[in-house]
Write a structure and sequence with these properties.
Blueprint (H helix, E strand, L loop, with lengths): L5 E6 L2 E6 L10 H15 L6 E6 L3 E3 L4 H4 L4 H19 L5 E5 L2 E3 L1 H8 L2 E5 L3 E3 L13 H9 L1 H10 L3 E2 H6 L5 E3 L4 H13 L3 H15 L3 H13 L7 H10 L7
Parallel strand pairs: 2-3, 3-5, 4-6, 5-7, 6-8, 7-10
Antiparallel strand pairs: 1-2, 8-9
The structure holds acetoacetyl-coenzyme A (CAA).
Amino acid sequence: MEYTILNLEVTDGVALVKINRPKALNALNTRFFQEMDAMIEDVSGMQDVKVMVITGEGKAFVAGADIAEMVNKSPEEGTAFSKVGQNTFNSIEKMDIPVIAAINGFALGGGLELAMSCDIRIASSKARFGQPEVNLGLIPGYAGTQRLPRLAGKGDALMLLLTGDMIGAGEALRMGLVQKVVEPEQLTDEVMNLAKTIASKGPQAVKKVKKVVREGLQTDFESGSNLESKQFGSLFGKGSEGEEGMKAFLEKRKPEW
Ligand code: CAA
């Protein structure tokens, strides 16, 4: 696909995906979802890519779903528009490799929902967060009502969802919505260093950590622990990644994955 909204740069095993529609504060329209679906497929097919980073161009990460595109939709079209976004964000969450959101500015509505579908969120101190849908007489449509309480807890989630208020990066950190806040000029370096650190680890182990945590959160403790044992065991054996990692430790050398 020819990308008109998304840019891709690959360096040292990290795919940096930039949303580039700054005049509309990177608002999410149908074209964005088509491109993001294609991007997920393209990046997933790149064997040398170990981590994906998503960020926004300009003063916004993403200021939400595209209100101009939504305004005249019928109830059926609204449901379909919600499903399209949910499917894309589920695909991000289900990618084998970890995905990091580098939140450079406004992460509102669908923008916060996009960030929440990523595995780790690092924010600029200038970033602003919110689910302002109630201001528009709407509710979130890209699973914000589901991911936000799971990440921030019911009270903080409902405070954001019911008031539509924006919060700053410090408050987002307190809620556990983001893992780290850095100065704006440090955001790219910080996120790329984090991504490269993860990219240097055992690639199968990294994928399995993500899989077991994600699937474990959707099930009970015992089933999750059983899944862990199974995946733990799959990293052992002749020629396995675990064998190489453990041998390298014992032989005091760097592992060759
Ligand atoms: N959709 C479409 N266009 C948007 C947009 C959005 N979500 N957010 C901003 N824009 C456009 C503005 O209309 C404006 O376009 P023009 O220059 O053509 O007038 C341009 O981006 C710049 O925006 P502002 O002039 O408003 O910039 P600002 O700095 O004064 O304000 C802001 C920034 C506070 C983020 C403000 O733009 C804003 O409140 N945006 C809407 C945020 C919002 O309500 N998001 C939720 C959308 S609904 C949703 O996401 C539902 C879902 O879950 C599926």
